[in-house]
Amino acid sequence: MQSDIKRLSLILLFAPFALWILLLIILPHLGMVVLSLREKVAPRVYEFGFGNYIDFINEPIYWNTLLRTGSMSILVTILALLIGFPIAYYIAKIAGRRSRGALFLLCLIPLWVSDLIRAFGWILLLRETGVFSSFLQWSGMVSEPIEFLYNDVTVVMGLVYTVILFMIVPLVSTLDGMDDAMIEAGYNLGGNGYTVLRRIIVPYAMPGIVSGCIVVFMMTAGSYLTPILLGGKNSSWFTEQIYDQFITRFNWESGAAFGFLLLAFTSFVVWLGLKLSGQTLANTVAKS
Amino acid sequence: MTNAQDYDLECTNLMKHFGAVRAVDDVSFNIPKGSFFSILGPSGCGKTTLMRMIAGFENPTSGDIRIKGSSVLNTPPNKRNVKMVFQHLALFPMMNVYDNIAYGLKCNGVSAGEIETKVRDVLERIALPDVAKREIHQLSGGQKQRIAIARCMVLDPDVLLLDEPLGALDLKLREAMKIELKLLQHQFNTTFIYITHDQSEALVMSDHVAIMNNGKFEQIGKPEELYHKPDTAFVAGFVGDSNRWNGSVINMDAKQIKVETDTGLALVCQRNPNDGLSNGDAVNIFVRPEFIAAKKTKTKSSKDTQNTMSGAVDSILFNGANSRVLVRSDNGQLIEADIVVTGSASDLRSGDNVNMSWAHAQTMCFADKGEFDAK
Amino acid sequence: MLSTKKGAGLIAALMLTSASYANAETLRLLTWGSYAPEELVQKFQEKYPDITVEVTFSNNEEMIAKLRATGGAGFDLAQPSHDRIYSAQLEYDIYKPMDLSKINTSVMEDSHLNGVKANTTIDGEVYAVPHQWGTSGLMANKAAAPDFKGWGDLCDPKYAGKTSMRLKRTILLGTAYSMGEDPFAAYSDLDKYQALLDKVADKLIECKSNIKAYWKGGDDLSAMMLSGEVVASETWDSTAYKLYGQNKDIVFVPPETGALAWIDTFALPRKGKADDAAYKWINFVLEPENVTIMSGSTGAIAAVKGGLDMLPADKKEAVTAAFTDADIANLKFFANIPPGVEDMEGKTLEKIKAATE
């Protein structure tokens, strides 16, 4: 009797999660798999086949775009880590209890406005007739207007700005759990600043670093507006390719295939990263 | 001037101010080579700040710290040959036991082969030869303790600082570790400086103990000196248990002081030649429970050498060999006295009328500095 | 006893709400941004108090994608361009035939009505009627680029780094015209069209270094034009008219090979539930005073007789500044897109985007 009630409450607690996974994650993805394996032979006539995937392999533009998206996402991840780590360290270890909340809030502010508004903010600042260019001319550092927009550097910067919070949060939470005495012990036993960072702080923060990197990498590779709006004439992003397939070319079949390829590619990169850093999903993302 | 080489650590006129707070206030002491030295004081007395200055994590406001005769004020913490066992040990959880011990050696650029030998050797010495490959979380509390010490000792430090490392252990283990620490100190023959607020840890293990209060050292001495010949009321009250009265000096001579407590009791105390007391001064009077004899029968006692008092047993505090009796005296005060409980009919029972007596020589009297007013 | 009373009350309440729900009809409109100005929606709801209008703003591609996803459900009236009806209907079956007797077709400009009918008739059924028309062409800042007149001028080194275009199918078609070809004629032979697209791609890749940036929407185009960062660009006419209001130097330039003209239509999604309300909306917005409100919001010309004269004064000035009668006669209406062409054009655009200068 008691155990029946227990089991029932367990099922009730678990049900929303199971339904969510099943209805909103698994079913749509199954639908996508089926869709991606349909080849269009004539209007309203489809055949089963791998044609959409073969198209991807045969067209260098597609896989070049995917590789480009992947490598730029890795760059963004690395930059977010390099910039986010000192910030997280400051928030977790150096800032006082009171200023910590305020600092966190500051990091959160960019998330209060939508992607689109944020991108337009960058555009206002960086365009040829924008704030930076005008300031440089006014201060006499340059004589001609400078265009900062429409290149890969701007895209990377905009992306880092957008995702850095998702690097900082897991880092702060792992570093926060680190006893200050551990750092002092590191010095006391003869380590210098570099050894302490490399042998003690970074290994300790590894779960946070890895989970931050995974989240940031996935978000970046899947982002759409920032690379589109800030990017230049040559900067294509794989999500744009998927959008084009679905919307402008009405080619849902190949769009679905591309979506899967992006999922597979990013999962592969994450797997590789975990292997190389010797971490597992269980003790990184699940922990922090 | 003594030969500097006799001392592993010398501190002279050491001060540390945090704003208006004098955390460490003009402290001077020397620690002889190879001794076990404890700094005992209540929390907030400045002992942790003092230790952090020795380790180099804080810079003194003024004064000097010398290790093996040379000043280390300008030496960063990682270059001082002073190692520290932290309160929560601060073992590195991402490394196994071997790497924890090897960490300091690697920092010093010791070759891999030599590291191997040294780590094996130190593990032998702490009697844990087989744990090298274990992860930290697989160790018991006592093993962690020993690894934390080994991690420091493998570097052959001039001074080892221990910051209340036994605090987190349960009582039984703590008792065992006290003895073990003492043995380890003998074995390594290195100067240990042990910080604690637990007097029994300090008394059991130490060669010398400094009693610290409000940033100052009240007294430095061997444990038995502190216990039997405290210099100040604070030391007498802090070290060991005692019965305490507040009172004032009625009259005195070179050897004895006659005092009257606030409750109207006349007592005679042993005179400490340097107490600086004069007639009418407020004093604290201390008597340790083990010197009070509580008996049912009226024994003959010499009024010349003994203080006496009568009362009724309030309750018996049975604790084996350390059993005590709580006696309510005729004027309503509770007094503790050690007794022997044998289980026979002659044992004291609650409600028995008793007489208590103790020697004048065991009655300690100090100028009242107000330390006990709040209680 | 009590519970039956309660139950009866509940049923009565349910009947009441469902009754009032049945009375109030909802018209779910799927249209372009600015094609349903608030003023007009209010006026419509005052005239037909039992109809509530819900508007979803979109564009050609997304309209078709949305209707395709539901098989034509979720909306009661859509407004795709005239060239986006035929093949979409053939492939995805998302529209239903229109009952022209319910529409006041007499007010419509005959040439537009007949053109749209011809474009959208399948098996004798008409699937759309015209609403407004406009053009895609060029715009130039006359102070900086007085001689700007054709699609090819976007690639003129004279304006290096000072021109812009949108990397979509319009620029492919315009460039084909500027090279002396007729892309719409080539639709009938897709191999020939592919060859033409390859030529166009080469030209546009070569042109890439001349372009400052590809614009993505009216807002970034306007900003670049007003700030003077670009002096000439491909444009929608409505954007050019809007900028003319702010800077009289910026005018719409019909390319010498002819501006590309589109007609936005009314079409009924296959599973629409409020056809009567939809017909009421169509007739309502074709009334002369409403045409002016609509055109004031969209900047496009209504496909009704005398549509040009019903433009608000400032828009009319911009149009007359841009078009001569000869330009109007030279308009090139988008032809129906045959199946497969979207894919070919998409690949060509990807090739251009991916090419490095």
From TrEMBL, chain A:
Can you tell me which family this protein belongs to? Belongs to the binding-protein-dependent transport system permease family. CysTW subfamily.
Q: Please give a single GO biological process term from the UniProt record.
A: transmembrane transport
Give the source species: Paramylibacter kogurei
UniProt name for this protein:
Spermidine/putrescine ABC transporter permease
For this record, the Gene Ontology CC terms, alphabetical, are: plasma membrane
Membrane topology listed for this record:
Multi-pass membrane protein
Entry annotated with the keyword Transmembrane helix: yes
Which InterPro entries does the UniProt record give? MetI-like, MetI-like_sf
Q: Give the PANTHER family listed for this entry.
A: INNER MEMBRANE ABC TRANSPORTER PERMEASE PROTEIN YDCU-RELATED (PTHR42929:SF1), INNER MEMBRANE ABC TRANSPORTER PERMEASE PROTEIN YDCU-RELATED-RELATED (PTHR42929)
Q: Which domain of life is it from?
A: Bacteria
Question: Where mainly found?
Answer: membrane
Automatic annotation (TrEMBL), chain B:
UniProt-listed InterPro entries: AAA+_ATPase, ABC_SmlMolc_Importer, ABC_transporter-like_ATP-bd, ABC_transporter-like_CS, Mo/tungstate-bd_C_term_dom, P-loop_NTPase, Transp-assoc_OB_typ2
Domain of life of the native organism: Bacteria
- PANTHER family named in the record: SPERMIDINE/PUTRESCINE IMPORT ATP-BINDING PROTEIN POTA, SPERMIDINE_PUTRESCINE IMPORT ATP-BINDING PROTEIN POTA
Mention one GO molecular function: ATP binding
- Annotated organism of origin: Paramylibacter kogurei
Give the ABC transporter domain ranges. 9-239
Name its GO BP terms in alphabetical order.
Answer: quaternary ammonium group transport
The identity of this protein, by name, is Spermidine/putrescine ABC transporter ATP-binding protein
For whether the record's keyword set contains Nucleotide-binding, the answer is yes
Q: Which GO terms describe its cellular component?
A: ATP-binding cassette (ABC) transporter complex
Keywords recorded for this protein, A-Z = ATP-binding, Nucleotide-binding, Transport
TrEMBL record, chain C:
- List, in alphabetical order, the Gene Ontology terms for molecular function in this entry: polyamine binding
* Example of a GO cellular component annotation carried by this entry: periplasmic space
Which Pfam families does this one have? SBP_bac_8 (PF13416)
Question: Which protein is depicted?
Answer: Spermidine/putrescine ABC transporter substrate-binding protein
Q: Which SUPFAM superfamilies does the record associate with it?
A: Periplasmic binding protein-like II
Where does the record say this protein resides? Periplasm
Lineage of producing organism: Bacteria, Pseudomonadati, Pseudomonadota, Alphaproteobacteria, Rhodobacterales
Q: Which PANTHER family match?
A: SPERMIDINE/PUTRESCINE-BINDING PERIPLASMIC PROTEIN, SPERMIDINE_PUTRESCINE-BINDING PERIPLASMIC PROTEIN
**Keyword terms, alphabetized:** Periplasm, Signal, Transport
